[in-house]
Amino acid sequence: MNNLQKNLIEMGLSENEATVYLNALSLGKTTILKISKASEIKRTTVYSAVESLKQMGLMKIEQIGWKTFYSAENPDKLERIIENKKQKLQESLPDLKTLYSAEGGSSLIKYYEGVEAIKNIHLDLLDEVKFGEDYWVISDSAKWMSEDQKFFEKFVEKRANKKLNNRLLLQDSEIARKYKQNETIYNMQIKIFPQEIQLSASITITPYKILIHQTTPPVMVMAIENKNIIRLQKELFNFMWNSIK
């Protein structure tokens, strides 16, 4: 198989269609018998390939007297075929994306270890969430920030600038009370747990992912992508939110 055949197959032609088309190009106006001999493909198979190529606009058939002649269309038409396929893909993308995000789809769980990896996954998550979407957190903010206070302080500012629906349930601490006093500045709604609640992990809930961030050694994050689990976590969050005055 030569490079031209491989390229045509990558464009969507079958091996037989590619072989027949290339031989028809070199033969000019010809017969099925000559294409069959040049291609080393049975005539019945050539007929089938020619019919497919005709449907694609790559082969034309002429009747001259009692004889039928076949000739390949200009290769420029290949570009048009590719453009048509791209257009059909663009038209189908919204539906494909709907299927991709449909409930009951496959789950994805990933683990990240180390402070740098954890910082990066938080930044990636923030980039995914769009204006006005939910960004809900259950956390001991003191432990969360202790891993790299400067980074997470800037992260809170960046999150505020995105104008998300930020709701935080925080373990009672000096940092939590500080942010509670500055809710408006940081575009957050905050409720503080009773003092007896002690958290060893943080949970972040968005429309796309859940991050479970273990704040005690070994420091790690588990990212979960599953619509049903996200919905469950949101329901539990709302229950806790409404339970705290």
Concise description?
The protein is an alpha+beta fold and 245 residues long. It has ten helices and nine strands.
Description:
The protein is of the alpha+beta class and 245 residues long. The chain has 2 domains: 3-74, Orthogonal Bundle (Arc Repressor Mutant, subunit A); 108-243, Endonuclease Chain A (Endonuclease, Chain A), CATH 3.30.870. 51% of the residues lie in helices and 21% in strands. The chain is built from 10 helices and 9 strands. The strands form 2 sheets. It has a 7-stranded mixed β-sheet, with helices on both faces. A two-stranded antiparallel sheet has the order 1-2. Strand 1 and strand 2 (67-72) form a beta hairpin.
Secondary-structure map with pairings?
Blueprint: H1 3-10, H2 15-27, H3 32-39, H4 43-56, E1 59-64, E2 67-72, H5 76-100, E3 108-113, H6 115-128, E4 134-139, H7 141-146, H8 149-161, E5 165-170, H9 174-181, E6 188-192, E7 201-205, E8 210-214, E9 220-225, H10 227-243
Parallel strand pairs: 4-5, 5-6
Antiparallel strand pairs: 1-2, 3-9, 4-7, 7-8, 8-9
Q: Do you know the CATH architecture of the largest domain?
A: 2-Layer Sandwich
Shape assignment: rod-shaped
What's the number of structural domains? 2
Helix-residue proportion: 40-55%
Task: List the helices and strands in order.
Answer: HHHHEEHEHEHHEHEEEEH
Neighbour order of strands in the largest sheet: 3-9-8-7-4-5-6
Superfamily at the CATH H level of the largest domain? Endonuclease Chain A
- The CATH topology of the largest domain: Endonuclease, Chain A
**Number of helices, where a helix is a run of at least 4 consecutive DSSP H or I residues:** 10
- Sheet/helix structural class: alpha+beta
Please give the number of β-strands. 9
Strand content: 15-25%
